[in-house]
Design the sequence.
């Protein structure tokens, strides 16, 4: 406050300044502050306009759509009869919903747990500098750079029951007899989660590695003098200092994973017999294969609400990270 | 209140898109001239692979030339076509000539965005009944389909000869042949049963030939057809991977010699003919009993005339659709794209000229359109069918139970 006063005071001494002229109508410091505030708002304007146009409008449209009987005809006629909660009742009452919800939860939890643990292990490993460590670290980003459709196709080929690389390998070791990774209802979800873990590792490693770089080396030296090395150094130095970053990684991971669509469509299409059907794939099928855009939107909104809950966690966690 | 809000919103969206498209067109130097003097027509289709891409490019250009217009053709990938058409329908930027996959026609006709072909003096006289039913919505015909296709049973001649097996004509023969042809890592038969419409499409000839109907899936006829597939997989004559194989995957298995027979369509001919040392032939899908009629599903695309609001352009567009469907062009498309002409009068000539298409030409005579009965409600039924097929094949339920669940779900 005091600072603003001071700056406002300085402005009034400039005779040709517009603010000085405006000052005739009221106290000088007030106008200056107002001008600055308007200026700040003007800087905000592009961002706000962008958010409203590209995030606000689609979300609002999606919310409205879920209350309408929105079909292919709507695109031409613009007519979408209001149906209240009928779309929500239909999608929640459908026999697939409970399964899709459970699959979504398992898929998200399984993916996050795997991605995070492996990602953290790799990040900690790369804290040590060794020959070629930089090259290897950049190679780790590869799964992130390959288009998901391509990784989906390659993994389908790897996981094929009869001629897939994985089953050929397992067969050569005489471990198991050709499990149907993508064709068995008990294995398909696990296979899809494993592929998604593979895709998510680079993201987790990158962010966690960044967090590790911020932990001062002296702390480890001091801890080593007190006898804390290896696991104990991780437990008492790395982990507590990494916590804010961990929170951010986990929450972002959940928000990204809960809506995963392409990798499941590419691997199994939600099958076999809905074994890998999630809320996201179900929403896609309702909208773009059965052309019931209202019901598709209803499922999409349910997903948005779940994501929002985690987004709130994220906001709290990232505030914690800034303070930390 | 909310309805009006949505209307306004979609109109605003439409205007925005229209603006972008107009600017885009102006930049291309095309522009839309007065209706009296139509110099070019916009065509949209999904033939993005060879040979279809070039075959249609030549034919469209030739038809354009005959009618004194330049063809501005846009090709999108098959999976994106409907989204594109819906976007264009809402922004009133539909092309002058629009190609649609035949089971999608009624869905798009239901929007009101298409003109009935009778408005332009076109008729479906002489066309196969099943093909016409796919292009018909509420009693009016909205498209003309020059060629169609369906699926048949491909077999490896060398493998069948070695095993002393003749191509199966009934379900019992199919089971016996498949069992006999299965040895080592080779399966007797391969088909496609994934969790999408491809799985439904492949199951239909078995379901329909046995008297099954999409209006009531919980019938013994449908269950028997599904039992056949379950038996083939459970006996080991077909791989359990059929649950995740597309028709292209099935073709690869066949080409690699991992399957002695397969259910597939004539669009695989170019790839199969390129495979060295592969001798194969095609017969119609086996019937439930000797003498029973095989009812296969009709494939292929239909050409429509969207309501662009410009009478002159629409009249020209109708001329293009008519030209694509001329006798000569139906035969030419049939030969070049290994598909079957839809005019029944051309069948004998075609079968004589293209003997490799014999099995398909035969099957098309009695084939049915997927949307013939349920129209725009077909997608829901198709989803139920592939879900039931997958449930039974994974052993989650007996065919009867799986179909009952699907019917009620």
Sequence:
């Amino acid at each position: 406050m005091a600072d603003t006063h001071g700056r406002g005071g300085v402005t009034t001494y400039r005779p040709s300044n517009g603010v000085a002229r405006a000052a005739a109508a009221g106290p000088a410091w007030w106008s200056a502050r107002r001008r600055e505030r308007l200026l700040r708002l003007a800087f905000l304007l592009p961002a706000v306009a962008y958010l409203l146009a590209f995030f606000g409008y689609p979300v609002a449209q999606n919310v409205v759509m879920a209350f309408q009987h929105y079909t292919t005809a709507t695109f031409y006629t613009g007519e979408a009869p209001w149906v209240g909660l009928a779309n929500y009742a239909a999608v929640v009452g459908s026999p697939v919903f409970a399964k899709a919800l459970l699959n979504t939860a398992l898929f998200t939890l399984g993916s996050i747990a795997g991605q995070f643990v492996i990602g953290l292990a790799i990040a900690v490993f790369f804290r040590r500098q060794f020959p070629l460590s930089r090259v290897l670290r950049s190679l780790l980003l590869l799964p992130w750079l390959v288009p998901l459709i391509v990784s989906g196709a390659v993994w389908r080929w790897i996981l094929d029951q009869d001629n897939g690389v994985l089953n050929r390998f397992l067969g050569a070791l005489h471990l198991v007899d050709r499990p149907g990774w993508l064709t068995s209802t008990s294995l398909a979800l696990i296979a899809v989660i494993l592929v998604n873990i593979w895709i998510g590792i680079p993201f987790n490693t990158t962010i966690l590695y960044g967090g590790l770089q911020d932990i001062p080396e002296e702390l480890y030296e001091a801890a080593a003098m007190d006898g804390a090395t290896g696991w104990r150094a991780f437990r008492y130095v790395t982990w507590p200092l990494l916590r804010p970053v961990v929170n951010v990684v986990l929450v972002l991971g959940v928000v990204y994973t809960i809506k995963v669509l392409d990798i499941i469509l590419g691997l199994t299409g939600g099958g076999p017999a809905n074994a890998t059907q999630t809320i996201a794939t179900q929403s896609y099928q309702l909208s773009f294969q059965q052309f019931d855009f209202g019901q598709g939107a209803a499922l999409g909104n349910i997903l948005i609400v779940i994501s929002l809950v985690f987004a709130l966690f994220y906001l709290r966690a990232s505030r914690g990270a800034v303070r930390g | 209140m909310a309805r009006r809000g949505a209307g306004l919103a979609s109109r605003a969206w439409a205007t925005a898109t229209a603006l972008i498209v107009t600017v885009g067109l102006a930049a291309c130097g095309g522009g839309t001239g007065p209706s009296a003097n139509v110099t070019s027509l916009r065509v949209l289709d999904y033939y993005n692979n060879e040979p279809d891409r070039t075959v249609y490019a030549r034919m469209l250009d030739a038809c354009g030339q005959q009618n004194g217009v330049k063809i501005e053709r846009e090709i999108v990938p098959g999976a994106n076509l409907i989204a594109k058409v819906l976007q264009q329908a809402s922004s009133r930027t539909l092309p002058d000539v629009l190609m649609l996959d035949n089971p999608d026609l009624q869905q798009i006709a239901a929007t009101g965005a298409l003109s009935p072909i009778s408005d332009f003096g076109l008729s479906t006289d002489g066309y196969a009944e099943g093909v016409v039913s796919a292009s018909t919505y509420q009693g009016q015909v909205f498209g003309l389909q020059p060629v169609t296709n369906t699926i048949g049973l491909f077999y490896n001649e060398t493998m069948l000869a070695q095993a002393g097996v003749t191509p199966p004509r009934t379900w019992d023969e199919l089971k016996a042949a498949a069992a006999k042809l299965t040895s080592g890592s080779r399966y007797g038969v391969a088909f496609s049963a994934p969790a999408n419409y491809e799985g439904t499409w492949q199951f239909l000839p078995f379901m329909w030939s046995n008297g099954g109907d999409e209006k009531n899936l919980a019938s013994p006829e449908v269950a028997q057809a599904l039992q056949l597939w379950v038996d083939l997989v459970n006996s080991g004559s077909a791989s359990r991977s059929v649950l995740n194989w597309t028709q292209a995957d099935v073709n690869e298995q066949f080409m690699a010699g991992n399957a002695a027979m397969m259910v597939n369509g004539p669009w695989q001919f170019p790839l199969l003919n390129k495979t060295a040392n592969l001798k194969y032939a095609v017969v119609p899908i086996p019937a439930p009993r000797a003498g029973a009629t095989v009812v296969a599903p009709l494939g292929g695309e239909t050409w429509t005339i969207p309501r662009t609001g410009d009478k002159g352009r629409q009249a020209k567009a109708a001329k293009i659709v008519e030209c694509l469907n001329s006798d000569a062009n139906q035969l030419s498309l049939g030969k070049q794209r290994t598909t079957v002409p839809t005019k029944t009068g051309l069948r004998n000539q075609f079968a004589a000229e293209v003997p490799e298409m014999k099995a398909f030409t035969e099957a098309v005579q009695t084939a049915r359109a997927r949307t013939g009965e349920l129209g725009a409600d077909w997608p829901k039924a198709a989803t139920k069918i592939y879900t039931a097929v997958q449930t039974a094949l994974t052993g989650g339920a007996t065919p009867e139970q799986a179909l009952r669940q699907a019917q009620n779900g």
User: Anything to note?
Assistant: The two ends of chain B are 33 Å apart (CA to CA). Chain B touches chain A at residues 2-3, 5-7, 9-11, 82-83, 86-87, 89-90, 107-108, 110-113, 185, 194-197, 239-241, 243-244, 258, 376, 379-380, 383, 387, 390-391, 393-394, 396, 405, 409 (CB under 8 Å). The longest helix of chain B spans residues 2-28. Residues 152-296+375-408 of chain B form a domain with the D-Maltodextrin-Binding Protein; domain 2 fold (CATH 3.40.190.10).
